[in-house]
Amino acid sequence: MSENTENNTQSGGDDVMIRLEGITKRYPGQQRDAVQRLDLDIRRGEIVVFVGPSGCGKTTTMKMINRIIEPTEGRILLDGEDVTKSDPDQLRRRIGYVIQQIGLFPHMTIGDNIATVPRLLGWKKDRIRARVDELLTMVGMPPEEYRDRYPKQLSGGQQQRIGVARALGADPDVLLMDEPFGAIDPITRDRLQNELLRLQAEMHKTIVFVTHDIDEAIKLGDRIAILQEGSRIAQYDTPEQILTSPANDFVVDFVGRGASLKRLNLTRVSEISLREWPTIGQDTPVERALETLRAVPESALLVLDDAGHPHRWVTGRDLRRATAASVAGLGVSAEQTVSPRATLADVLNELITARYSAIAVTDNEGRYQGVADFEQIHDAIREMRNAAVEDLRSDLQSGSLEAVRPGEPAQPSDPEPRSAR
């Protein structure tokens, strides 16, 4: 094995879903290997993100796992089984695969697209239909509405959801995702990232995710492998460790400035205490709404519909100009919300464009739970700064800062996967 083996294969055998042993890819006529004797353990049920500059071999490495690209040397172990010499088609049916271009078959319905692999595996029609409906429901697209549509009738974000559903068709243990959200607009991308984290909390798949975006890696990864040229590992560790204890100058430069701000991606809304905000029902009389607003310091009320979903924001000006008896229809839409799985970085992005100083937080059914605001973001940053100072003081006192030499990968720690928190 290579010199990185000791640092990157620390897991016990029962916890390792994917093991790469001395994996090398050498293309004819090239002076350098695209991937050089890579050793890496990927633990069961974790999201491991490959990130690095263009040309570092991250996509090549991922494609060797399901042998879309055949390795020149080395072994691939999948759940303890050496699959390097097995039938590659059979291997690929055991591994879900999602790419940036999605690759849905345009002449097939959404249901038929999702059913592709189950049909190849010989599943019965009733089982296939039930699985299709289950997956459509899982990705938030009602089967009765979307099953018989065609890809061209969907938005880019909806198509990407179907790409994920298709990859999960035969319920594989492993999911490979090659920059799946790279071609999506930023708002939809954030939502799809949050959706992936929600699904992972239910599915506990082993996911290998390739991206060039360090912020996406920090948000999604239980563990991140920062790769240099030839897929040499600069650091393989948790997002927390990479942001607070970068292994070398390459990692520092790749993470870039604003590491403290990036740490907002490590904290989720579910981990903070939500602030209460004055709410009223949409049938509340205008005069009663005015009385409620006069009794609170906030400049607006949040109107909830009959199901408890955020509906409208109304101000004193809206209420004083009202001609109707109730607040229904007054103010501006409150559709801009975040879920408990959103990160504080997501909250900050929403707050920058929000009409008021708070953003409503809703559960999986869209019901109001409370609000998040700038003060909570400020408190989180202050706590992170204090924690970083304490960690640095502790490292200086213990002398552990000298334990990681320039160019040497850090030892991965052993936290609970963030997707399970």
Characterization of the model:
The protein is of the alpha/beta class. It has two domains: 5-256, P-loop containing nucleotide triphosphate hydrolases (Rossmann fold, 3-Layer(aba) Sandwich); 271-376, CBS-domain, CATH 3.10.580.10. The protein is built from 17 helices and 17 strands. It has helices at 5-8, 58-65, 88-93, 110-114, 116-120, 125-138, 143-146, 156-167, 186-203, 214-220, 239-244, 249-255, 259-262, 286-294, 316-320, 344-353, 374-398, and strands at 16-25, 35-43, 47-51, 73-78, 81-82, 95-99, 174-178, 206-211, 223-227, 233-237, 279-281, 300-304, 310-315, 332-333, 337-338, 358-362, 368-373.
SSE topology:
Layout: H1 5-8, E1 16-25, E2 35-43, E3 47-51, H2 58-65, E4 73-78, E5 81-82, H3 88-93, E6 95-99, H4 110-114, H5 116-120, H6 125-138, H7 143-146, H8 156-167, E7 174-178, H9 186-203, E8 206-211, H10 214-220, E9 223-227, E10 233-237, H11 239-244, H12 249-255, H13 259-262, E11 279-281, H14 286-294, E12 300-304, E13 310-315, H15 316-320, E14 332-333, E15 337-338, H16 344-353, E16 358-362, E17 368-373, H17 374-398
Parallel strand pairs: 3-8, 3-9, 6-7, 7-8, 11-12, 15-16
Antiparallel strand pairs: 1-2, 1-4, 4-5, 9-10, 12-13, 13-14, 16-17
